[in-house]
Amino acid sequence: MKLRVLGCSGGIGGCLRTTSMLLDDDILIDAGTGVGELTIAQLCKIDHVFVTHSHMDHVTSIPFIVDTVGGMRSGPLTVHATEATLDIIHRHIFNWKIWPDFTQIPSRENPYLRLQPVHVGAEVSLGGRSITPVPANHVVPAVGYHVDSGRASLVFTGDTTSNDELWRVVNRIENLRYIIIETAFCNKERDLAVASKHLCPDMLAEELAKLSRKAAIYITHLKPGEPEIIMREIEASAAKYAPSMLRNDQVFEL
User: Which residues form the domain of 206?
Assistant: First the structure.
């Protein structure tokens, strides 16, 4: 099982692409602007999108995927998310005002888009691949995802701030190999991080201190213009965890 990073920035511009990861060739975890790097043939292969939360930098490509390849596929694209997130996406995007409601196109009985609720702790198994929502703490309903091949596991926190429940779950994963965790702001913007329920480097160090297992740590969602500052501050406060900055096209083998 392979997970390829399509986008991992907190914004756009130049080579910056927002959050999306491709699991093998048929599953997306989030669908930010990074999805735009895929060809039409690759888009046709995507059967499932697991969404962490409803913010645009994580869902913006879903309408374009459905519109572009919906008619080329033999079945619907299934979007997995919490009921609260699916409700937001349906009411505020696929509402015939922002975008057509592809849960009704070409018909309710045979749509291009299907919405499937997930629940924290409830595993979804797809072709031997286990994807389980884990707790997140954000300004809108949100989850992260635990991806498990059986041999090894990766946890993607999604957008989150301080979150004791997440670490209780993570510390029970015996085959944990990777953690992808956000750090959106630098330390001088800690008040903004707290208000928007993100992390800054000092808060990241406080969260990683709750980790009782060994894992390779990768940092995502850095704000444009601040990656170097954020990573220097992470080195200063969390060096013992040897964190690395997540990069576009990075591949994780599980």
Answer: 2-253
